[in-house]
C-alpha cells in the first residue's frame, strides 16, 4: 500500500530515476515532482506533478524557486493525506506524537478548546489517556 514520490527539480536525477524504476519493477505505485516538462522522472512515474517555475534567478540555486515550489507541494500533499487518513478533526491535528513540552501544550490547548474544558482538566485527561484522540473519544462516549 506504499506510494513512493520521486523528487527532482531537474527531472533527471539518476538516484531518483533508479529508485522509481526499481519501484515500478516491484509494482509499487510511484509519483514524481519535478520543475520541468516531459522529463525522464515524469515518464517513470504513475502520477507526475510538473511545477513549471521557470529558470532560477541565480543559475544552479534550485533552493530558490524550484525547491520552494516542491516544498509547498509536499506540504499540501502531506496535509491532504493526514486529513484523508482521519488524523485531523475540526482543523486540528489530533494524532500527533506528544514528545516535547511544546507539543504537550498544543495537545492540552486542542483538548481544552475542542471540549470546552479548562486546561487543567485537559492536562489531567491527557496524562491519563496519553493521546488527543483517546481523550476526545472518552469525552464523546462519556457525554452519551
Set down the secondary structure blueprint.
Elements: E1 3-8, H1 14-25, E2 29-34, H2 40-43, E3 47-50, H3 65-84, E4 88-89, E5 92-93, H4 101-115, H5 119-129, H6 132-142
Parallel strand pairs: 1-2, 2-3
Antiparallel strand pairs: 4-5
Shape: elongated
Tally the helices. 6
The biggest beta sheet is recorded as: 3 strands, parallel
Distance between the termini: 36 Å
Spatial order of the strands in the main sheet? 1-2-3
Q: Return Rg in Å.
A: 21 Å
Mean pLDDT: 93
Bin the strand percentage: 5-15%
What is the number of beta strands? 5
The amount of helix comes to: 40-55%
Provide the succession of SSEs: EHEHEHEEHHH
Class from helix and strand fractions: alpha/beta
Which residue ranges are poorly predicted, with pLDDT under 50 across at least 5 consecutive positions? none
Tell me about this structure.
Helix content is 51%, strand content 14%. Helix 1 (14-25) links the parallel strand 1 and strand 2 (29-34). The protein has a three-stranded parallel β-sheet, sandwiched between helices. With 144 residues, it is an alpha/beta fold. The longest helix has 20 residues, at 65-84.
